[in-house]
Amino acid sequence: MENNFEVVIAADALRQRVRELGAEISRDYAGRDLVLVSVLKGAFVFLADLVREITVPVALDFMAITRYGAGRRGGAVRIEKDLDLAIAGRDVLVIEDIVDTGLTLGYLMKNLGARDPASLAVCTLLDRRARRLTKVPLRYVGFEVPDRFLVGYGLDHRELLRN
Ligand code: IMP
Ligand code: MG
Q1: Apex CA 161: angle with CA 156 and CA 163, to 5°?
Q2: What is the pLDDT of residues 106-159, one digit of tens each?
Q3: C-alpha angle with apex 81: 137 to 65, nearest 5 degrees?
Q4: Considering only CA atoms, which residue is closest to atom 22 of ligand 1?
């Protein structure tokens, strides 16, 4: 770790929390038809660790979306890569790295909800609640984080520092 970065969440705390989330999800989705949907790219490290803590059968799929248009409130979202799997009648859990304004997730939930999943919920590693602009229900939250820009464990600054 370069010494001009401050550790906000220690590695063992992170590992421990991911383990707990995996156990909770395994308990809650036992006997269901679980599909994890992840939005590229920020959640890829969290997802990779989380799936290995999930003990029930689970399918995975990815979406890529871009937000465009000016302003934090304005702008639209475009799907760059859609799901490969059909999710109608299945239990969908969206895996996110961080929920900030909630705008991206809000759009995604509307889009996925329109495909008639049996259930639709969100698991986010980080929740920066102070900046929320739109209400999005979060079933699983790893950590609440302060209003500071974070990097590492998948989160980038201009595509770098995800490692
Ligand atoms: P929202 O639509 O404002 O909730 O945007 C959430 C997305 O912005 C996340 O999935 C991240 O890709 C990105 N993001 C938000 N905060 C940070 C941060 O502190 N570091 C890196 N990426 C972030
Ligand atoms: Mg992201």
Answers
A1: 105
A2: 999 999 999 999 999 999 999 999 999 999 999 999 999 999 999 999 999 999
A3: 45
A4: 155
Which of 128, 155, 157, 159 to probe ligand 1 with, by most ligand atoms within 8 A of CB? 155
Strands (E), the chain: 34-39, 58-68, 76-81, 91-99, 119-127, 140-144
Q: What is the pLDDT of residue 66?
A: 85
Among 49, 91, 100, 127, the one annotated catalytic: 100
Ligand 1 geometric centre to CA of 140 (Å) = 17
Catalytic status, residue 116 = no
Question: Cis omega before residue 110 (within 30°)?
Answer: no
Tell how far the Cα of 55 is from the centroid of ligand 2, in angstroms. 25
Q: In whole angstroms, what is the distance from residue 160 CA to residue 117 CA?
A: 35
